[in-house]
Amino acid sequence: MCITGTVGNGGANAATDIRCVQLLLNMNRSRDDLSADLAIDGLWGAQSRTALAKFRSGIGVDPEALLVPGDVTMEAFRRLLPAGLTRGKLWTVMTDAEAARIELFFQPIITTLTRYAIDTPLRMAHFLAQIGHESGCLRYTKELDSGRAYEGRQDLGNVKKDDGPLFKGRGLIQLTGRNNYRAYGKACGRDLESDPNLVSTDPYLAADVAGWFWAGHQLNDWADRDDLSEITRRINGGLNGLADRAELLARAKWLLLP
């Protein structure tokens, strides 16, 4: 489900739900004279109220009724969305993202989906949920911790002094350790041992490394089984952040699945 609570006058009006509605209204702004491009600010202001009322009037629904998950208005939004993954849909999955980050990563993500055969709505939904959580909705392409915890980790190939910080996690699914940087560097034709920061500063590499990891761990197979927990274990080593991943997945499914 795209929203989890009520939106409108007297509604719960959670900021995440409001941003979803604002994005859905913007994706439908060519209908019923919805010309205003709403700010995605999570605030239930006059412009958002007016735009929702116009949309509801256009589909024959009481414009003053409270918006609830799964109601006629939400189903109309869903039915009228464009096909495939669009910038608006990507932002609606990752409602906490900044507009500039959506713009920066949209095409790299599309390229990655194609390259690694993440090519069904269910596969795409699971991939977006995982990179959304791992990157904090595209905020981070580099691990916030120093990387000292990886120092001396021979299982990661960190055999030289300062390898831990040098080869700490980068990318939308974090590449970690000298061995993994070497392996991905061979796969993408870049010398990442000499310049590991490329994985975090080049948006195409940041997205592509997530697809490379996804393919290498056969995560399409688990996405086909709709197994969020197993995908999370294979990425994270446990079930950290499962509730957030599930919330992202629910929005992605609502937007992408027929």
Low-confidence stretches: none
- Taken in chain order, the helices and strands follow as HHHHHHHHHHHHH
> Mean of residue pLDDT?
94
Largest sheet: none
Q: Briefly note the CATH topology name of the largest domain.
A: Lysozyme
The number of distinct helices, counting runs of at least 4 residues, comes to 13
Give the tags.
mainly alpha; single chain; 258 residues; 2 domains; 13 helices; Lysozyme
Describe this structure in words.
This protein is an all-alpha fold and 258 residues long. Helices cover 52% and strands 0% of the residues. The chain has 13 helices and no strands. Helix 4 (87-93) runs antiparallel to helix 13 (242-256), helix 5 crosses helix 10 (203-216) and helix 6 packs antiparallel against helix 13 (242-256). The mean pLDDT is 94.
Summarize the helices and strands and which ones pair or pack.
Layout: H1 15-27, H2 46-58, H3 72-79, H4 87-93, H5 99-115, H6 121-134, H7 163-166, H8 178-188, H9 198-201, H10 203-216, H11 219-224, H12 228-236, H13 242-256
Helix pairs in contact: 1-4, 4-13, 5-10, 6-13
TL;DR of this structure?
By secondary structure, the protein is mainly α.
